[in-house]
Amino acid sequence: MPAQCADGRIATAVTIRQQTERLEAQVLSPLACFSRDSRGRERPEKPDPIRTAFQRDRDRIIHSKAFRRLTYKTQVFIAPEQDHYRTRLTHTLEVSQIARTIARALRLNEDLTEAIALGHDLGHTPFGHAGEWALDEVYRQFDPRVHFRHYEQSVRVVEVIENAGRGLNLTWEVRDGIRHHSKGREDLPLARGAAATLEGRVVTLADRIAYVNHDIDDALRAGLIALHDLPALALATLGSRHSARISAMVTDVIAQSEGKRTITMSREVLAATNELKDFLFDRVYTVGARAREELRKVAGVIGSLFRYYMEHPAELPNPPGRAGRKACPKPSRRALARAVCDHLAGMTDRYAKNQFARYFLPTGWPGPSP
User: Fold this and answer.
1) Over the stretch 7-46, which tens digit does the pLDDT of each residue have?
2) DSSP-assigned letter for residue 79
3) Pair 137, 154: CB distance under 8 Å
4) Are 64 and 141 in contact (CB under 8 A)?
5) What is the rounded end-to-end Cα distance, in angstroms, of the chain?
6) Which of 71, 153, 245, 254 could form a disulfide with 238 if both were Cys (CB 3.0 to 4.6 A apart)?
7) Contact 183, 204 (CB under 8 A)
8) 161 and 66 Cβ atoms separated by less than 8 Å
9) pLDDT tens digits for 106-142?
10) Is 234 within 8 Å of 278 (Cβ atoms)?
11) Of 296, 295, 316, 294, nearest to 305 (Cα)?
12) Are 182 and 149 in contact (CB under 8 A)?
């Protein structure tokens, strides 16, 4: 029988989710984003009895196909022959770890932070930075009014592409954090809009902290740079070891952001972090004969595939203008370019190379039977 209160009222069962939401109110900072105060989803859903809204979002991202494909997407080094270079998935996990550490120290919502971090690169192209630049260039050839940015594509993945076109129906806060996480080469703090929540802003800094340090680590391992090539002032501020630099940045963010309505770094650490970022763009990502050659090859693969699918839309897994067996009008050039862009952005490195080989490389005639 239901429990009865002292005044005769029937007690209502409290779900595990509600207990967690109450615990958030007791433990988290007043500046945190509370699960129960979420602005909700585009399509309303019945609350889960166990998980908060942000825990549910995290789980949907982890179980998505786009998340699994990150395993085979380049971070910096394309199809590396060694096993210890970062991929887009390991980058995502490092961002999540750093962001959660900062969020926990500042008593922010760790579940929201984790969901944003895990989803922030779902829309990234194959072949890393080179793939993003190449896809942006060829996409604009077919539709000059658009551009390709991986953070916008990440939002498109969770809103439109995943789940057979229904999207993941994530909360507004997670989608906002994903949309505003990226900086490109822009220095911190950002000149343009930042995430609405402090949790989203934590992910923005965690992303920079993660890739600046692990891309240096990978470039050192590859022999593209030596430790003495790194900016001396930045090393004097942050340390010469990989773990020391991460620790210095994370500790500084926590110290400078405690109790504030912003997530920031001190002037010295911020300058050192931006200097290392500029060093990577100038010395690793685009400079050198090997980097230029890789950029040329990537542009060739991405450009050739884009033009092929524009000429052969039936080769797309979900070509625009087809809805089951129903006859649909021929899609516009713009709609077709959008569909091709989505398809290419979702490819892994190896799938893109296999498709390129399938369409453009000769396979040879079969030999005689023995």
Assistant:
1) 555 446 899 999 999 999 999 999 999 999 999 999 999 9
2) S
3) no
4) no
5) 79
6) 245
7) yes
8) yes
9) 999 999 999 999 999 999 999 998 999 999 999 999 9
10) no
11) 316
12) yes
Q: Hey, where are the domains in the chain?
A: 56-128+147-287
One-letter amino acid of 360: F
Instruction: Confirm if 143 and 342 have CB atoms less than 8 A apart.
Output: no
Q: Alpha helices of the chain — where are they, by DSSP H?
A: 16-27, 53-62, 65-69, 88-105, 110-119, 128-142, 150-156, 172-179, 198-222, 232-238, 242-257, 267-280, 289-311, 333-345, 349-360
Separation between Cα atoms, residue 62 and residue 131, nearest integer Å: 23
Structure tokens at 82: 């060694």
Contact 53, 19 (CB under 8 A): no
> How many whole angstroms separate alpha carbon 206 and alpha carbon 208?
5
**201-252 residue pLDDT tens:** 999 999 999 999 999 999 999 888 999 999 999 999 999 999 999 999 999 9
In this structure, whether the domain defined by 56-128+147-287 belongs to CATH 3.30.1330.60 is answered with no
pTM: 0.92
**Location of structure tokens 């100038």:** 282
